[in-house]
Amino acid sequence: MGKSPMKIRLTRKFSNVLNGIDLSRFAKGETMDLPARDADMLIAEGWAELAEESARDRASDRPSRARGRRKRR
Fold first, then answer.
1. DSSP for the chain, written as a single string
2. Is the predicted pLDDT of residue 15 greater than 80, yes or no?
C-alpha cells in the first residue's frame, strides 16, 4: 500500500465513522481523496470503489492553451 492519496467514490454509508475513518462530511456517491490505507479499508469493507477520472477532470488538470489572435510581426 502506497502513501499517496487515492480517489474513491463512496458507494454506501452506514455510519459517519468506519474504523476511525471520518466520513461525516461525505454522502453516498461523492468522491474523495484519502490516504491509500484508508481508501483500501473502505474498498475492502464494500463502502467505496476506485473513482475513475472523467474526461472533464483530466482536462482541468492540463495547462490551458492560449487561444485567440496570434501576434503579427
1. --SSEEEEEE---SSSEETTEE-TT--TT-EEEEEHHHHHHHHHTTSEEEPPPPHHHHHHHSPPPP-SPPPP-
2. yes
